[in-house]
Amino acid sequence: MAPTTRFAPSPTGRLHAGHAMSAILAHDLARAAGGRFLLRIEDIDGTRSRPEHVATILDDLRWLGLEWDGPVVFQSQRLPLYEAALDRLRAAGLVYRCWCTRADIAASASAPHGPEGALYPGTCRGRAGDPAQPHAWRIDMAAAVRRTGPLAWHDATAGSIAADPLSLGDVVLARKDAPASYHLAVTVDDAAQRVTDIVRGADLFAATHVHRLLQALLGLPTPRYHHHALLLGADGTRLAKRHGAPALADMRLAGEDGVALATALRSGALPLGFARASA
Ligand code: GLU
């Protein structure tokens, strides 16, 4: 079967060369095998997503010479799908309401740490709070793992990986201010769009443990994963975290050649001022 890949940016800021790398790799993997390359805008975070970033993303991709197949999909238009998935997990007794604020969680000094930082200490698990008060929904990870048993997924670079969703703890599946979290929406959409190969930065490697678990709980297929090394600024910091990392839009508006940039990234020749993280 010809592969289907996707580029799934969040329109919360401007794209930089690291995003370009993900988009190019996903595009080329599909095109090399006569497959499909999709574009999905991950705009469930209504407070941070901006329409002007969407327009910029489309212009940036065209500037790089990348064309996507079919209409652009917006997660903000697919909320009922995520609600239906959450309903199923709720019916299975695998999620619970959480009223904690960020400050509450930060204040629980005893919280253990996982690959994504402090783990949720489980404060609201089994707690009878007021459902009328704003609350998130968290997965009861220990119960979920008991339900699925051991799981594995395949990464093109790292090989067969034993899923370890417990290392991320009781992650949020629906937020106080958004009906789905990244983990839930991305899992539902990759299955709904029949994505066979997920190409994305190594910063999302650990999240795949959770996505694999959700696939098993929701009866969805498991794609192949291709986590690529992140691009860093010359000072070694991640582009996303770095102030002043050049945005693709800046290069485009300055008259630089996007297709030449894409060719350079494909050949591993990084633009001036970039480095590649060791995988
Ligand atoms: N929307 C995510 C981001 O911009 C990427 C999602 C993914 O590739 O799984 O970081």
UniProtKB/TrEMBL annotation:
Domain Glutamyl/glutaminyl-tRNA synthetase class Ib catalytic: 4-263
Gene3D superfamilies: HUPs
GO process annotations (BP): glutamyl-tRNA aminoacylation
Pfam family name, one: tRNA-synt_1c
EC number assigned by the record: 6.1.1.-
Record carries keyword Ligase: yes
PROSITE patterns named in the record: AA_TRNA_LIGASE_I (PS00178)
Claim: Ligase is one of the keywords in the record: yes
Key words of the record: Aminoacyl-tRNA synthetase, ATP-binding, Ligase, Metal-binding, Nucleotide-binding, Protein biosynthesis, Zinc
GO terms, molecular function: ATP binding; glutamate-tRNA ligase activity
Gene Ontology, cellular component aspect: cytosol
Domain of life: Bacteria
InterPro entries named in the record: aa-tRNA-synth_I_CS (IPR001412), Glu/Gln-tRNA-synth (IPR000924), Glu/Gln-tRNA-synth_Ib_cat-dom (IPR020058), GluQ/Sye (IPR049940), Rossmann-like_a/b/a_fold (IPR014729)
Broad EC category: ligase
Family: Belongs to the class-I aminoacyl-tRNA synthetase family.
PANTHER family per record: GLUTAMATE--TRNA LIGASE, GLUTAMYL-Q TRNA(ASP) SYNTHETASE
Protein known as: tRNA glutamyl-Q(34) synthetase GluQRS
Lineage: Bacteria, Pseudomonadati, Pseudomonadota, Alphaproteobacteria, Sphingomonadales
